[in-house]
């Protein structure tokens, strides 16, 4: 028997006994020289498409009660997720509606697209007002329900660590018994839950310009100074008129929402994704890119990445 045949026979015997030789992993390791293969594809979801389908969802699903009227952006090159660790989507609640209480081991956050002082999320008994441009957190295992007591529709961006938690097989869910959450002992939930737009944008505009990232303000928990959620880092990014960032890449994946402005995301080769107001896009991990403001007005974008997870595990790599 030749050496090749002997190895093939051994591989078969190992497989029959639910084992595998490490030599079978050599090709996988070789493919990772220079960094991981990006998971998923860069992709943009246009606001006009989102709102057309949201209108259809409103007609098909007349009330947002136990089930959320929420559309999730599915990366075309992944089995699930907007990136391989993050889900992003848009949720709409009409006047008078409530999204009933529940809690889960998945962490979530909302960036408010259209809101006012009569729109609230209750997070473990704390009432958080949701005005346009605010960021409201629902850390994992916090009860949360959403109430629209205004006479206007409400829209917000939902960002969750669903694919990460699913991948770790750590999903736990508990529905509430009705619209409102059970009484939570006072002081159970400490730390920042709401970041007001006015303060965030002022802090962003005050930052020095970074040639790779523009003016990138990270929302940090004021108590410990760390990322606002254990698994997700949130940033507000301002690009001055005509600003063209230098290319970079990071092992973190990210999702983006355009608050205002028009520009493009330059990718390898001549590929580029254009973006305008309220468009959404995903940048997979380890994808070289450069962001550009292609107008003579400022652009402001909200972005979320899985950076804290990689940082905690010693896996964060950045290349400029
Ligand atoms: Fe939830």
How much helix is in the residues?
Answer: 10-25%
Query: And the CATH topology?
Result: Jelly Rolls
Number of domains: 1
Strand order of the largest sheet: 1-19-16-21-14-13
**How many beta-strand segments?**
22
Cα shape: globular
Straight-line distance between termini = 52 Å
Count helical runs.
Answer: 6
Unreliable segments (pLDDT under 50, ≥5 consecutive)?
none
Radius of gyration: 22 Å
Strand % is 25-35%
Question: Mind telling me which CATH architecture this is?
Answer: Sandwich
Bound molecules: fe (ii) ion
What is the N-to-C succession of helices and strands?
A: HHEHEEEEEEEEEHEEHEEEEEEEEEHE
- What's the CATH C level? Mainly Beta
Supply the helix-strand structural class.
alpha+beta
Structural write-up:
With 320 residues, the chain is of the alpha+beta class. It has one domain: Jelly Rolls. It contains six helices and 22 strands. A six-stranded antiparallel beta sheet has the order 1-19-16-21-14-13. A hairpin with a 2-residue loop joins strand 6 and strand 7. The longest helix is centred in the N-terminal third of the chain and has 14 residues. The site of fe (ii) ion has 4 residues, from strand 4.
